[in-house]
């Protein structure tokens, strides 16, 4: 997909900013997205759910007395003191800090620990799509599209019954994609069962496929 067309679909460019050829293709995408309908909405959780979850959580253990004293000392507490009282309190605080045992500094995280806790890169959502083409007499049928780098060898179909009906399940990332069938490794044809098409720039039509992400269980 052209980068400017992708920016238009993402809302970063207006249609007037596209050249004529991309503007026509943008109309096809808009019509396809309109046919797909509005996205599903997820209703809010009931108000009583938060209270029930919080009640089921185990209570945190009470920190030790030295830890609570340090937390109290480092947190701001607005008080009003007379000058003599303030000086006495400051002297007592300095004495306590001098005799208080110093906590050991935690060891710096090792490279192995850092690598194990680093978040994994988010992978695109993949859906298996059933492709099918009736091509009697064909020796092979493959699918080439922008979802497999237009490499037909990566998406080969099968004709198990020998009746000329070629089909197969192909992994496709969620989104809108262009594709064509390749018969016998050299003849490219559009999918006659596709609902929408777009010019491929070489005098033929790419079929358009809209793949919705799988619904999440509530």
Description:
It is built from 6 helices and 7 strands, in the order H-H-H-H-H-H-E-E-E-E-E-E-E. Among the domains are: 1-33, no CATH class; 124-213, Immunoglobulins (Immunoglobulin-like, Sandwich). The strands form 2 sheets. Strands 2, 4, 5, 6 and 7 form a 5-stranded antiparallel sheet that branches. The protein has a two-stranded antiparallel ribbon with strand order 1-3. Helix 1 (3-9) runs parallel beside helix 2 (20-36). Mean pLDDT is 76; it is low at 39-43 and 111-118. It has helices at 3-9, 20-36, 48-56, 65-74, 83-99, 111-117; strands at 126-134, 141-145, 165-173, 175-183, 187-189, 197-199, 205-211. The longest helix is centred in the N-terminal third of the chain and has 17 residues, at 20-36. A hairpin with a 3-residue loop joins strand 4 and strand 5. It is elongated and about 100 Å long. It is α+β, with helices and mostly antiparallel strands.
């Amino acid at each position: 997909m052209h980068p400017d067309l992708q920016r238009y679909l993402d809302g970063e460019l207006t249609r007037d900013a596209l050249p004529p050829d991309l503007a026509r293709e943008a109309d096809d995408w808009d019509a396809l997205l309109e046919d797909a309908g509005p996205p599903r909405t997820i209703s809010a959780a009931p108000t009583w759910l938060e209270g029930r979850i919080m009640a089921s959580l185990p209570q945190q253990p009470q920190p030790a007395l030295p830890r609570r004293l340090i937390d109290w000392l480092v947190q701001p507490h607005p008080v009003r003191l007379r000058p003599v009282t303030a000086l006495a309190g400051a002297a007592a605080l300095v004495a306590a800090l001098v005799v208080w045992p110093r906590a050991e500094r935690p060891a710096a995280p090792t490279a192995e620990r850092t690598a194990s806790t680093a978040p994994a890169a988010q992978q695109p959502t993949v859906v298996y799509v059933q492709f099918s083409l009736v091509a009697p007499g064909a020796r092979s049928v493959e699918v080439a599209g922008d979802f497999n780098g237009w490499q037909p060898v990566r998406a080969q179909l099968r004709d198990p019954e020998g009746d000329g009906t070629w089909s197969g399940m192909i992994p496709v990332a969620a989104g809108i994609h262009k594709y064509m069938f390749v018969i016998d490794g050299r003849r490219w044809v559009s999918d006659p069962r596709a609902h929408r098409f777009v010019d491929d720039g070489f005098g033929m039509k790419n079929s358009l496929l809209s793949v919705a992400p799988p619904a999440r269980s509530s």
